[in-house]
Design a protein that fits this description.
By secondary structure, this protein is an alpha/beta fold. Helices cover 40% and strands 13% of the residues. Strand 2 and strand 3 form a beta hairpin. The chain is elongated. 35% of the residues are buried. Bound molecules: zinc ion. Zinc ion binds next to loops.
């Protein structure tokens, strides 16, 4: 399967609502873009990779001239078996990309006129799954702060541990973790922090050679007053407070621990692109990653715990 690089595609993506309406006015417009993103413009058979295909079922499916196999435009992606037109999916991608803080399932249901909350909820989760990948490509550096936060109901039993790594005024990485022992912190650091980065943490005993390896490390124990003066891990503290506000504000705190990592991924995706000019680039990136993702069933979305991908994974429902 050949895919065109996202660089070409995002240049072509509309940046305003008016441009969007004009560019994706019809289902055919959206299909053409989808085919470009998924197959570089020339669709091929999912079974034999032949490019001798023609469209059937009103353009939603290709039939292979060589082996007769039928490939739906959306099969093998999170949009598999969708009964809604691509145009609607594009609209939602545009909505979530233009809003700096994203959108709740409730608001999406209202805006798109979906019959059920569950539909809106599952669409957002599918799109969240497309907001991951590229962040993991380049480890953080050269100055990285590491901290952790408890997220969840005030004083309730459902506080969840989130590990935070932040470049000074730069990118962030967030991981929902079961604990903050040295082994867990080591996985997080090895996946996310450059081997030559200089790391600053608070005095937590888990940070040391066992977790941070040979990285230069400064453990800053500060009093409240000192922190007010000059917080050594301010980027982490800002990230944590904005994250909490976002979960409470946009999502009304209604995030199940099972799904917390997906929200952390969305938060990091948005944060790390906050300086990107134009929503076109963000929306194009989401579609580019959507065509490359595995299908997600409703049952899997609801039942499975999506653990942070840097830690050992539990079995997911097929
Ligand atoms: Zn074929």
């Amino acid at each position: 399967m050949t895919r065109r690089s996202g660089d070409d595609l995002w240049r072509d993506f509309p940046k305003t609502a008016t441009e969007f309406e004009a560019r994706f006015a019809t289902e055919e417009d959206c299909r053409a873009y989808w085919i470009k993103a998924r197959w570089g413009g020339t669709p091929s058979c999912a079974r034999c990779e032949s490019e001798r295909v023609w469209t059937i079922r009103a353009g939603t499916t290709f039939e292979c001239a060589d082996c007769g196999h039928q490939t739906s435009l959306t099969s093998g992606t999170p949009l598999e078996k969708t009964r809604k037109p691509l145009k609607m999916w594009f609209r939602v991608v545009f909505e979530i990309s233009t809003r700096r803080t994203g959108i709740s399932a409730k608001d999406l249901q209202r805006i798109m006129g979906f019959g059920s909350y569950k539909t809106a909820w599952s669409w957002l989760h599918k799109l969240r799954a497309a907001m991951v990948r590229s962040d993991a490509s380049e480890p953080l550096g050269p100055f990285v702060q590491v901290d952790e936060a408890l997220i969840g109901g005030k004083g309730g039993p459902n506080k969840e541990l989130v590990l935070v790594a932040a470049e000074t005024s730069g990118r962030v990485r967030l991981a929902h973790a079961e604990n903050n022992d040295a082994a867990t912190l080591k996985r997080f650091a090895d996946a996310q922090i450059a081997p030559d980065a200089r790391v600053v943490t608070d005095g937590h005993a888990g940070y040391g050679g066992k977790s941070l390896g040979k990285r230069s490390h400064e453990a800053k124990v500060q009093t409240k007053a000192e922190r007010r003066e000059s917080d050594a891990i301010q980027s982490c503290h800002w990230t944590i407070s904005l994250l909490k506000r976002w979960l409470l504000g946009t999502h009304a705190g209604a995030v199940h621990p099972k799904h917390l990592q997906s929200y952390l991924d969305e938060y990091a995706f948005r944060h790390n692109r906050r300086k990107t000019n134009g929503v076109g680039r963000i929306a194009a990136r989401v579609i580019e990653q959507l065509v490359a993702r595995q299908p997600l069933t409703m049952r899997s979305l609801i039942d499975d715990t999506r653990r942070c991908r840097w830690f050992p994974q539990p079995e997911l429902t097929a």
